[in-house]
Structure formats: C-alpha cells, structure tokens
Design brief:
Largest sheet of chain A: 10 strands, mixed
Oligomer: heterodimer
Structural class of chain B: alpha+beta
Structural class of chain A: alpha/beta
Distance between the termini of chain B: 42 Å
Strand content of chain A: 15-25%
Helix content of chain A: 25-40%
Strand content of chain B: 25-35%
Largest sheet of chain B: 5 strands, antiparallel
Number of strands of chain A: 11
Number of strands of chain B: 9
C-alpha cells in the first residue's frame, strides 16, 4: 500500500477517520493525503485506499449519486473504507465476506495482503444461501467446506493462517458478529463493477452493514490488486509521508 | 391506532436494488433530526424493525414509475420514452406553486411500516392528479399515493407483534416541519431511496410577477 487518501470534511467523524487512516498509513509505510473528496479525481495516480468518516444519519448508507462527493466514492474504482465515529485507530483483524465470486476473491486477496503487511488476523466468512441461486450448482459440485478451503488456498499457500467460518442464510449477521469479536476489526467486502446494471459499487450486504456501522468497512472493487509494500527512498513503516491539502 | 392483534409484514425490498422514478420533496436537516428522534424511540420498542436512514427520509409527492409495480416494459426503457415529456409537464405545473410547508403531526403504524403523517397539501394533490393523467396517457395503470407521509420504519421480520409499537407511536409527539422550495425527480436505485440519483428538479417559484421570475434551473443530470 503506497497511498491512503482521507476525505477531509472537518466533521468529528471525519477527524476520527483521519486518525484511523493515519495509523494505517504509519503501519504500512504509505503516504497519507488529507484533502477534500472532490480532489480525488485530480490525483496523478489513484490511491490504494480512500477513507471517509461515517456520521450516523449523514452519508452512509444513504447515497445521493447526483452529489459529486457521493458519486466519487460510490462509483470510483478504488478501495473505500468507511470509518464510524470513535473507531479505534489501527487494524488488528480483517473479516472478509467470501462467496466464491471473483469480486469476493479479489477482496480476499486484498485483505490477505493487508493482513500480511500488518501482521493482523484474518477471518473468512461464508454464508450459504438458503434459497437456490446461480451459485448453488457450483456450491453443490464442490461442497461448501471444500469451496471455502479452495477459496482460501492462495492465502494458505503464502503461509497465512486465516480462520474459516461458515453460516447459513444471510451473511450480514455472521459478518457483524465476526467484526465485533476482536478489537480493531475491519470488515472487507467485494464491490460491484459500476456499469449499466449497477450504478454504484456497494451491494446490498454492504449497504446493510453500513446501515449499522460499528467497525470500519472496506469495499474493494473487482480487479483490485493486493496491497503492495511501498517502494523507494523513505518508504516503509518508519518513513510515511503526510500531505495535508486543506479541508 | 393499529389493531391490537396486528403483526408485521417483512419488506422484501429492504436495502435491495430496485428501480423507481418518483417526484420527491426533500426534508431539511432540522426536520430530519426530529423524525430521527422518533425513529430512535420506535426502533427501541420493536427489535426487528428496520429504520430508514435519516439521510434518505423524504416525501413522495408523485410516483411516476412505482418501485413495487411491474410494467409492460422495463422502467428505464419507459423512462427513456416518457420521462422527458413527464418532467416538462410536471415542471410547468410545479413552477406555478409557491413553496409550501409540510407539517408532520402524528405517527401511524401499519402492518407494513411506521409513517409520519402530514396534513394535505393542495400542490401535492394537483401534481398527483397530473402525474396520474400522464401515466394513463402513456398507456400505464395510474397509481398515486393518497396521503402525504414520510416512512420512518419498516420491518425486517414477519410476525412481530405491533400493539406496543402502536401505543408508543400514538404517544410520541412529532412536531416536525419543513418548507419545500423545490421538488426533485429521483431515480431510486436501492430501496428505500437509500441510493438514488436526481434526474430533474422543479423549483417552486409561486405566482410572482414576470419581472420577478428567475430562470428555472435545469436538471444537473438526466
């Protein structure tokens, strides 16, 4: 991870988000940019993570896509972390929702890379759908446990030791429970491609978790690369840079 | 007040992708804050209820393509065919109205939702009549709401006993009001207006003298 961008809005929730992002940047050696959200579109290179604060009843989960700031974070192709007010700085545990879709596997790769960089715990949560779906045939073919193990195989191959959890039905409850069990947790979800079908990147599971936000939630767009360590002089956990650009 | 034996009906659309085109009145911050206070009180009474995010609270002034109805063609296709004409007609009507006030005076509990009920507004009734006529002209079944309300809560589970919720709602003062100076036509993407996009806007200029009229703002996005 080389760049973390924090959307500065002057609100208490925004300040908490900035503190959370600053701790993350310090831990990963990433540069931290604090600026107004509208400046995201003018960055020379896309950030590895965009962090916004969530004040209850304000932005999340309600999104008004005609507002530039909402559209930028809801439609852009970068990982987005929504941080609730009062969140403890730092990341000690990543909880990833996995269902075998390419989007969820990209989110898993991103979370696993971040967990490895931070020395954080990693928990994979899979909720078996109770109603038949297009995924059902695939699940039946391999069996759920085998599916989860197969999805986790790349993480295991790199020496990761994730906790694997399965549940039945709605994934929101199991994800919330896992996110609440250990301090400094982050829930990581795969985003959706923004196209003619989907006008925003956050799916219904993400929106429902954002609706009662109590730990940071990261939404990772499909195709996102795993966070890479910073390169070059001054990089690394002891030398992060910080750029405050107003707000 | 709701029947003592009433039970909830879970909303299958809650937080799901949807499609609708609706003329909405947005609420100001103070109004939303007051309604959010009522939401907090009611949600505490009934675990299993789901609270409409305060930032999404609104009043549906007129429904153009309903979130709960099926049509002979996809809603986006119907909108592409009729939306511009509908907006032009409704704008011409709306711009003749002066800004109006919505006063939420009481809460009502039904098997589907808890709503804050506002008094009738002549401008809203006129816009609904025009919208219904436009729907019929397009060969669609006309459908418009019959009350002026803001939905505060729905239910995540079927079968919840609603009698205690009804008592608390009846005893909860609302006293929320907002002045509506413009209307927004929204494409609803996630129910209930959790994710939406403004596609047009009607300013309520009132019957001002011609020299006092400002040019109407055009839609930011279409």
């Amino acid at each position: 991870m080389t760049t973390v961008f924090v959307c500065a809005d002057g609100s208490p929730a925004g300040q908490d988000a900035a503190a959370w992002a600053e701790a993350l940047a310090a831990s990963t050696g990433a540069d931290l940019i604090v600026d107004e959200v509208e400046r995201l579109g003018s960055l020379a290179s896309p950030p590895d993570l965009v962090v916004v604060g969530a004040a209850a009843g304000q932005w999340y989960p309600a999104l008004h896509l005609d507002q530039p700031a909402h559209a930028l974070v809801a439609r852009a192709g970068w990982p987005l972390a929504v941080v609730p007010g009062g969140a403890s700085p730092g990341v000690g545990h990543l909880v990833v929702g996995v269902d075998g879709t390419p989007a969820s596997l990209d989110a898993l790769a991103w979370a696993a890379g971040l967990a490895a960089a931070l020395g954080a715990d990693l928990t994979l949560v899979h909720a078996r759908p109770t109603r038949p779906s297009r995924d059902a045939a695939r699940d039946r073919a391999g069996g759920q446990a085998e599916g989860l193990l197969a999805w986790a195989a790349p993480v295991l191959a790199r020496g990761g030791r994730p906790e694997l959890r399965e549940a039945d039905g709605d994934p929101v409850g199991p994800l919330r429970r896992a996110g609440g069990e250990r301090p400094r947790s982050v829930i990581v979800l795969g985003g959706r491609p923004v196209d003619g079908t989907h006008h925003h990147a956050v799916g219904s599971v993400g929106l429902r978790i954002l609706d009662h936000l109590f730990v940071p939630v990261a939404v990772v767009p499909p195709g996102t690369r795993s966070p890479a360590p910073p390169a070059g002089p001054g990089a690394g956990p002891t030398g992060p840079g910080r750029v405050d650009r107003g707000g | 007040m709701i029947d003592a034996s009433a039970v909830s009906r879970a909303d299958p659309l809650w937080m799901r992708d949807c499609r609708a085109y609706v003329v909405q009145a947005d609420l100001d911050e103070e109004c939303r804050r007051r309604l959010a206070e009522a939401q907090d009180r009611l949600a505490g009474v009934l675990p299993g209820s789901v609270v409409c995010p305060p930032a999404s609270l609104h009043v549906s002034v007129a429904v153009l393509l309903s979130v709960r109805r099926d049509y002979p063609a996809p809603k986006d296709a119907l909108w592409a065919q009729w939306g511009s004409r509908w907006c032009d007609q409704l704008r011409a009507l709306a711009e003749g109205f002066a800004p109006f006030e919505l006063r939420f005076e009481r809460l009502e509990v039904s098997e589907a939702a808890v709503i804050a009920l506002a008094g009738p507004v002549a401008a809203v009734e006129s816009l609904r009549r025009r919208a219904a006529a436009l729907q019929r002209d397009a060969g669609l079944v006309a459908y418009q709401p019959s009350i002026v309300h803001c939905t505060l809560l729905r239910y995540g589970t079927t079968g919840l006993q609603l009698d205690e919720l009804g008592r608390v709602a009846h005893a909860t003062p609302v006293r929320a009001r907002t002045v509506v100076t413009h209307l927004t036509v929204r494409r609803e993407l996630v129910y209930p207006s959790v994710v939406s996009e403004a596609v047009d806007r009607f300013d309520l200029w009132g019957r001002l003298p011609d020299e006092g009229r400002r040019p109407p703002l055009r839609a930011a996005a279409r």
